Amino acid sequence: MKRTQQIMLLCMALTALPLSAAAQKLTVSVQQAADHAVENNRQSRNASLAVQEAKAKQWEAIANGLPQAEATAEATADYTNFLGASVEAFGNTIEFNPTTNLAFRVTQLVFSGNYYVGLRMAKIARSMAQTGKTKSDLELRIDVANAYYLALVAVQSRDFAAQNLANLQSIYETTKLSAQVGVIEQTDLDQLTVQVNSMANAVRSAERQIELAHNMLRLQMGVSATTELELTDNLEAIIAHTNVEAATERLFEVEKNIDYRLMTEQETLAQQQIRLQQAAALPTLAAYYSYTEKLKKPAIDFSPSQMVGLNLTVPIFSSGLRCARVKQARIQYETTLNQKELLTDQLRIQEKQARFNLRNATDQYLTQQQNLEVSQRVFNNINLKFQQGLVSGIDLTTAANNHVNAQNSYVMAVLQLLQAGNDLEKLYFTTEQ
């Protein structure tokens, strides 16, 4: 009986695990959502791993110039002994006995042009990986903000649709009573029925759009699909904190742009590649120390057990191989310079276009905001006249459709305004912020 109770408790605990996971809830602002994404998004983690890999490669480059030690064991036997052969010298027979040696060797690089250039290249590569991580985080934050805004816009659309549905249902109930007593024609009531059904579908569609936007935000934040998200920021507060004039009047310093910085580091790396190929023509000098312990010695052995020496390698002739490699590196460097100039022009044009888009989005937002207010007044006025029998159901339907279109245009204008601000902020971003 006791064992049965334990099994039942275990089953209940296992059943509760997915329920607790499904009940997980995150309450986040735009900034908190972006911070969470930087810590948990898979792409952000890969960028962090790339930085760690670059650090390991830099240490690998450093370690190539540090002392290297190795130990070896060797056992040898003369093959001729197995054939019964021997060597005669000065009237004596010399047999080559099997030998066993234990050796220890330490080497130290003294000079190598490739080594010193390689150190600089490894340092540049590490810096590029860190800059790439910064760029990845910036793009992720922008994507999270856009997904967050999209979710807020979806909620706003749902609220508009729900409000419209409630208004139409109220008008429908009033019109239904009027139609029953013959004050209003049945055709007007039928038109309202179509409007109510269409708006109910719009509400359901808006609910699905909210879930879709939340799923996109979950993906960007790196959370599970079952995590419930509660968004604390609202569109009005975000727009109120958007200073369009300050954003469009900022000085654009292309040298501080993250893409320009990456290209500058790429240019430096290409320049070091030229020096690396040139350094291949320089000599390489290494020192070594070796100690050999002979467990089984041959009959005659004149080799010392300890040795110290230098190993100098001097390239003499390569049939133009090194020259060709240097030429290729120079061509790559010139190509990088051209790409850098092209990027500079592209960034300046993008910045001008982003300014224009933000100003245009601001004007569009203000216009649609006014249109929304006007369409609301027009709809209220037509509705009042409809209740008094002064206008037909067609007029009311037209006013309702115009109001819905104004709401949709307003919502899209809000989203375009926020996204345009993000696009400009991305260009202005520097690591000094």
UniProtKB/TrEMBL annotation:
| Classification via Gene3D superfamilies | Outer membrane efflux proteins (OEP) (1.20.1600.10)
Q: Does the keyword Signal apply?
A: yes
Q: Which residues cross the membrane?
A: none
Top-level taxon: Bacteria
Q: Which UniProt keywords apply?
A: Cell outer membrane, Coiled coil, Membrane, Signal, Transmembrane, Transmembrane beta strand, Transport
Q: Which InterPro entries would you find in this protein's record?
A: OMP_efflux (IPR003423), TolC-like (IPR051906)
Signal peptide positions are 1-21
Q: Does the record carry Metal-binding as a key word?
A: no
Coiled-coil spans are 326-353
| A GO molecular-function descriptor | efflux transmembrane transporter activity
What subcellular compartments does it reside in? Cell outer membrane
Q: Where is it found, in Gene Ontology cellular component terms? A: cell outer membrane; efflux pump complex
Location (main, coarse): membrane
PANTHER family reported for this sequence: OUTER MEMBRANE PROTEIN TOLC (PTHR30026:SF20)
- What is stated as this protein's family in its record? Belongs to the outer membrane factor (OMF) (TC 1.B.17) family.
What is this protein called in UniProt?
Outer membrane protein TolC
Taxonomic source organism: Breznakibacter xylanolyticus
